[in-house]
Fold this protein.
Amino acid sequence: MYSWDNFSVSGNLPLHFSRAGSLPSTDMRKGASGDVGDSTKCCPGCLSRDSIATAAAVAGPAVVNISVTQGFHGMTLGKSIGSGTIIDPDGTILTCAHVVVDFQSRRTISKGKVDVTLQDGRTFEGTVVNADLHSDIAVVKIKSRTPLPTAKLGSSCKLRPGDWVVSLGCPLSLQNTITAGIVSCVDRKSSDLGLGGQREYLQTDCAINEGNSGGPLVNLDGEVIGVNILKIVAADGLSFAVPIDTVAKIIEHFRKKGRVVRPWLGLKMLDLNEMVIAQLKERDPTFPNVTKGVLVPMVTPGSPADHAGFRPGDVVIEFEGKPVGSINEIIEIMGDKVGLPLKVLVKRAHNKMVTLTVVPEEANPDM
C-alpha cells in the first residue's frame, strides 16, 4: 500500500526501520497555566506574541506518549514510540495506525495493548480499539477514575496556505515538544508523494520527527485540525498530516461498523479545470465540450466500472444525479455505499452523453 523509500513516518520502530489556522480568538487562554488573558494584537487577525503559546496551552495537556513493546517469539526487539491526543473524556485517544500496528504482518501487535503516558506523568495501559491501515489512523482507549484532559476537534476545510499551525507530540521520545509553522498546501495528493490511493494531506513546514506520529496539528485556537503522519527524509520543512475532517469520517465509520468501508469502482480519475480542458481539446478536437468534470484516463479490467461500461476518456459530469467537478465530490456521494447501483452520467468524444449504472464493491483494506 505504501512506498516508504523516500519517507519517514514519524514513529520510532525497532532495529533499522524508520517510519515516520484559523485566526486567533479574541478571548484565549494564556501561558502554560491556562489563565485567561488578553493577547496583545496590533489589529484583528494578527499573530500576537502569545498566540502560539496559547494554542499549545489549550491542546497540550491532552497530548500523550504512546509506547508499544515489540517482540518476536518472546524476544523483545524494541519499542514503537508515537504520540496521540485524548479527544473524549471517556479516554478515547486518536493516533496513527503505524504506531500501534505491525505494517509488515498487517496485524495489531502486543495483543492490542499499549502504554500511554500523559503530560502530567500519569501512565495507563491502553487498548487498540480500531486501526485503519489505508488512512493510517487508529483509536486507542484508556480508563481513568480521575478526569482526563481533552482537545477539541476543529475543522480543516477552511484552512488556507499560509495559516499558522502548531505541532505537538513526543519526537525522539521527548515529551511535551512543540513546533510551529504554516500550512504549505491544503490538498497534497498521495499520488504527488508517490503513494497509492486517493488520499489528501495537509502539508506544513512544522518540524516533526520520529515519535511525532499520531500527535495533533492544531490551529491558533488550540483545535485539532490534523494528525501528523509522515515527513520526507532529508527534506526540512516538508511534513504531512491527515486533515481532521477526513479523520472525523473515519472515526464515524469505526463507531458504526468497527472498520472503514470504502467503495471501489476500478477507475483512475483526474480532476479537470479550465486550463487542463483547453490542453486536452488542443490535443484532441473530439474531446467533449465541458467546463468541469472528472476525467477517466484508465479503467481496471474486470472492475465494477468495466462491467458498467466505462471507457478511458469518459468525463463524469453527474454522479447519482448531482453535478460533480472533483474526485472528492464523487467520494463524498458514494460514502459507504457498497453493493448498491449508482447512476453516472458521462460525456464522451463528439459530446455523446451516456448514462451508466455501476455497483461498487468493497475495496481491499490492504490496497
